[in-house]
Design brief:
The chain is of the alpha/beta class. Helix content is 30%, strand content 18%. Strands 3, 4, 5, 8, 9, 10, 11, 12 and 13 form a 9-stranded mixed β-sheet that branches. A 5-stranded parallel β-sheet has the order 16-14-17-18-19, with helices on both faces. A 3-stranded mixed β-sheet has the order 15-21-20, with no helix packed on it. A hairpin with a 3-residue loop joins strand 20 and strand 21. The N terminus is likely disordered.
């Protein structure tokens, strides 16, 4: 018995001995990995110290996700309608894997006309079409501007007056060293007139010093209806035009927001498409921008001029928008045996401070009946409905780029007609209280040469409280059959 007890005790001590060294090995391995991580982090900080504060801010925004370096991170592509309920919330910064963008040639008459400018100040100021301007070595001095920083969570600024979200300027906010004062007249309704009035041509060198200079292209933008997809799209298309004609490199462009709007679900889209986003409230001391463009006002966008026969570069804009989000551009091939039909629903949601209840108009009362009718008309086809603004922009685009027929009430969500496949169709509904003279999306369909039809309610009995409309199912059935025949004759 005594011998057996010794053996057992020895085994116990042996196991404890092995466990002790195993724990030491794990600890040392962890320490080495931590040192590696710390070394990498210190290298990043050292590298950042050689860049501007604004470059560092961009690196902070996209530094890591899931412990992977940004340059190797890709967002998994979803199949149609995959995990819609579990999708990321709007505003989540997804950094898709993108291919280096190359602009198509700009030797056409439209771009040549856009670039006919009036040069002043020995080429340091060039005004174009009274719509936008390019400035070289322009200094922004925040001492002569005031306003909210912006970017707050919307819950913190509910009922905030809209005027609180716009900057106020005095002469000297913009500074351009010129031998003489000059005048340039911008469009009468454009905020750029106010920017020009805030431009100083000469100043006392003792008033301020400039310690930082930004060499990257910068597009200055003042946003208005920043939470609305349609109006944001007019700003994005304008920035796309500017980037194209000046041959800027997407991903290496500064967007300067000269406003104080709170954070919104569409903010990250600017970063994915162009690069860094700087708020005017971020600028704490005078900064020299070597190449700045005062961008086209959103309301002056070609997308907002619905009577135009053509909007230039619209297919390239679609290609640009999808590819920057990592969405295959020409993946969807029309399959008349399995059409993909998507209803966009309008539901109440809080999008900006002036509507804290989140109540929206132009909602559909009989959504389920529409789905059932569509499935009866087109049995075996892929038919779904969704409140699309609940998805990240990447997943919105992934759905739209794979949709053959898009259906919905007149509303900002139908702006996605810009990203439908070229063979697709659009069916738009109008309630009785909304004028069909609002042809925003009909115009987009016409510009892109995609099929379009609509239903306009004339029966007041179909209008219910809470801005709900009962869609005429018999008429819808005929519209859907006609649209299917247009796509698949």
């Amino acid at each position: 018995m005594r011998k057996e007890c010794k053996l057992t005790t020895g085994c116990v001590f042996y196991m404890l001995f092995i466990s002790y060294f195993a724990w030491i090995f794990v600890f040392l391995n962890y320490t080495v990995e931590s040192i590696k991580d710390t070394t990498t982090y210190k290298f990043d900080i050292t590298h950042q110290s050689k860049t501007s504060a604004f470059d560092r801010r961009r690196q902070h925004h996209i530094q890591f996700k899931h412990n992977e370096p940004v340059d190797t991170l890709t967002t998994p592509k979803s199949s149609r309608f995959r995990d819609l309920v579990n999708d990321s919330e709007p505003g989540d910064a997804l950094i898709p894997s993108v291919i280096k963008w190359r602009w198509s040639p700009t030797n056409d008459m439209y771009s040549e006309e856009m670039l006919k400018g009036s040069e002043q100040c020995h080429g340091k100021f060039i005004g174009y079409q009274q719509n936008f301007a390019m400035l070289k070595d322009i200094i922004v001095n925040p001492k002569h501007g005031s306003g909210r920083h912006g970017g707050e969570n919307i819950s913190h600024v509910l009922n905030q007056p809209e005027e609180n979200e716009y900057y106020q300027f005095k002469r000297g906010f913009f500074n351009l060293e010129c031998p003489e004062v000059f005048r340039y007249v911008f469009n009468s309704n454009s905020h750029i007139r106010n920017w020009f009035e805030a431009l100083a041509f000469k100043w006392n060198s003792k008033e301020f010093t400039v310690d930082e200079s930004i060499s990257k292209w910068t597009i200055a933008v003042q946003r208005y209806e920043y939470a609305n997809l349609y109006h944001t799209m007019t700003d994005l298309y304008n920035a796309f035009l500017i980037a194209k004609i000046f041959k800027m490199e997407p991903g290496s462009i500064n967007i300067l927001w000269i406003d104080g709007h709170p954070g919104g679900a569409l903010d990250d889209t600017w970063k994915v498409l162009f690069g860094d986003v700087i708020r005017s409230g971020d600028i704490r001391k005078p900064v020299n921008f070597e190449r700045m463009v005062w961008g086209i006002m959103g309301y002056d966008s070609p997308l907002n001029k619905h009577k135009l026969k053509k909007v230039h570069y619209l297919e390239e804009f679609r290609h640009f928008f999808l590819s920057r989000h990592g969405i295959p551009v020409n993946k969807n091939i029309l399959n008349c045996e399995n059409l993909k039909i998507l209803f966009i629903w309008r539901h109440n949601y809080v999008a900006h401070p002036r509507n804290p209840s989140g109540v929206v108009s132009r909602k559909i009362q009989n959504e389920d009946d529409l789905l059932s009718t569509a499935r009866h008309v087109l049995p075996g086809h892929n038919i779904s409905g969704i409140q699309i603004d609940k998805l990240s922009m990447e997943n919105q685009l992934n759905l739209i780029a794979n949709t053959d027929i898009l259906i919905g009430m007149h509303g900002a969500g139908l702006t996605h007609a810009l990203f439908l496949p070229k063979h697709a169709g659009l069916i738009e509904f109008y309630p009785k209280y909304w004028s069909a003279a609002n042809v925003h999306f009909k115009s987009m369909a016409r510009w892109r040469n995609i099929s379009y039809t609509n239903w306009i309610n004339t029966d007041r009995m179909r209008e219910l409280p809470d801005n709900l409309t009962i869609i005429d199912l018999d008429t819808f059935r005929q519209l859907l059959k006609q649209m299917k025949h247009k796509l698949c004759p």
